[in-house]
Amino acid sequence: MTANELKDLIRAGLACEHIELDGDGRHWFATIVSPEFEGKRPIQRHQRVYATLGGRMQTDEVHALSMKTFTPAEWAQAQQGEA
Q1: Partners of 22 in the beta sheet?
Q2: DSSP single-letter state for residue 35
Q3: Is residue 10 pLDDT above 90, yes or no?
Q4: How crowded is residue 55: how many other Cβ atoms within 10 Å of its Cβ?
Q5: Residue 22 in domain
């Protein structure tokens, strides 16, 4: 699976304002910003992303996905901290 294919899968099931993806085709790291994360704990956010991938995690199409998840407000704050 390519990075663009994985981004498209996530975007198809989750409203994303920003998504960055890095990986080697099996092991991925994502930074995802979505208003759907408002009020959700980190584990709930990750479960929401995994739900967009459906069975692809079980079939090893996506072997590993680690992620940082942000609400738009959290992302804006994180970006200010980097400036």
Answers
A1: 29
A2: G
A3: yes
A4: 8
A5: yes
Structure tokens that stand for 70 in this block: 């942000």
Q: How many domains does the chain have?
A: 1
Give, for 27, the enclosing helix (H) or strand (E): strand 27-33
Name the pTM for this structure: 0.89
pLDDT digits (tens, 9 = 90+) for 30-64: 999 999 999 999 999 999 999 998 887 777 778 88
Question: DSSP letter string over 40-82?
Answer: --HHHHHHHHHHHHGGGTTTTSS-EEEEEEE-HHHHHHHHHHH
CA distance 49 to 32: 9
Confirm whether 24 is domain-assigned: yes
Evaluate whether residue 19 is within a structural domain: yes
The answer to whether the beta carbons of residues 31 and 70 sit under 8 Å apart is yes
- What's residue 2's pLDDT? 86
The verdict on residue 67 lying in a domain is yes
Instruction: Give the pLDDT confidence score for residue 83 in this predicted structure.
Output: 58
The one-letter code for the residue type at 49 is V
